């Protein structure tokens, strides 16, 4: 009887261990698939881009200021500058609003309002890019044009629109990070005499820095990789902007506008431009990881 009982108890444990082993294999294959996809993208981009950049010349390609494919001039420096300017301004506009909104929703927002705000922000994240572009064209562009006495299409309009587009990412990720901080930190600060605002900003936010930085990095990735909305209101001028009201063209918009009809060297140059964009994103993520490692030390 004891032997029968022992076998009966071991059987479920064996099945559980077997199931865990199978699921670990499935999870591992999924992770390997993701790594394989990234690797294939890298191989495709760099195999096509390196010979093209070598043919044109690295300095002429990266630092050239003239983009005229018909006469064989492929300088992408104006698009690089445009991408950096638009992304930087979008972060300047969007990050403070996004982080402060996340703080409000996590600690100060009444529950009835929170039940209203959360779906609205999630809906904002799901709006298609082209719809944002139409909104910018009808609402933002006329206002900017009236203020600066221009057409309204340019760097400032595109930055404001991108700031709106990255808000949901920053708010939702920051809110989750803030709420993940143990409530005991907040309650301990209150018990020591801190006001609610000081407890949040000097205790909770300090512990949630890593998640907030992650939201900013995701926002930067969204802003620098956006194309459709920027095409509509950026002005699409392949020049280095001298003021915030000037027209501008980013790397993504340049690729989208010309890839449909590009052939030969022109097409290869556009692929090489995507490598520059890829390196930007990779550099941003590496800087973020280095910053996290430095904070851990």
From TrEMBL:
Gene Ontology CC annotation, any one: plasma membrane
UniProt cross-references to InterPro entries, sorted A to Z: MetI-like (IPR000515), MetI-like_sf (IPR035906), Phosphate_PstC (IPR011864), Phosphate_Transport_Permease (IPR051124)
Primary location class: membrane
UniProt xrefs under PROSITE patterns: ABC_TM1
Protein origin, superkingdom: Bacteria
Similarity comment: family membership: Belongs to the binding-protein-dependent transport system permease family. CysTW subfamily.
Function comment: Part of the binding-protein-dependent transport system for phosphate; probably responsible for the translocation of the substrate across the membrane.
Protein name (Swiss-Prot/TrEMBL): Phosphate transport system permease protein
């Amino acid at each position: 009887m004891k032997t029968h009982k022992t076998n009966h108890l071991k059987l479920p444990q064996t099945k559980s261990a077997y199931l865990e082993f199978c699921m670990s294999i499935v999870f591992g294959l999924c992770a390997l698939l993701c790594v394989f996809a990234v690797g294939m993208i890298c191989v495709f981009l760099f195999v096509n881009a390196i010979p093209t950049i070598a043919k044109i010349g690295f300095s002429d390609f990266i630092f050239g200021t003239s983009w005229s494919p018909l006469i064989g001039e492929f300088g992408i420096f104006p698009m690089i500058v445009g991408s950096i300017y638009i992304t930087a301004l979008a972060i300047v506009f969007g990050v403070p609003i996004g982080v402060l909104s996340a703080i409000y929703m996590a600690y100060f927002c009444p529950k009835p309002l929170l039940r209203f705000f959360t779906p609205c922000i999630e809906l904002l994240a799901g709006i298609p890019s082209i719809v944002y572009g139409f909104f910018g064209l009808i609402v933002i562009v006329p206002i900017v044009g009236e203020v600066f006495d221009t057409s309204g299409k340019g760097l400032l309009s595109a930055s404001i629109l991108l700031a709106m587009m990255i808000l949901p990412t920053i708010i939702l990720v920051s809110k989750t990070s803030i709420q993940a901080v143990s409530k005991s930190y907040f309650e301990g600060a209150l018990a020591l005499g801190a006001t609610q605002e000081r407890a949040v900003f000097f205790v909770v936010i300090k512990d949630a820095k890593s998640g907030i930085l992650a939201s900013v990095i995701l926002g930067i990735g969204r802003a620098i990789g956006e194309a459709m909305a920027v095409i509509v209101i950026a002005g699409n001028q392949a020049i280095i902007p001298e003021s915030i009201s000037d027209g501008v063209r980013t790397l993504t918009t340049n690729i989208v506008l010309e890839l449909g009809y590009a052939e030969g060297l022109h097409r290869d140059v556009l692929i090489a431009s995507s490598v520059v964009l890829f390196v930007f994103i990779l550099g941003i993520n590496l800087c973020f990881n280095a910053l996290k490692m430095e904070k851990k030390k």
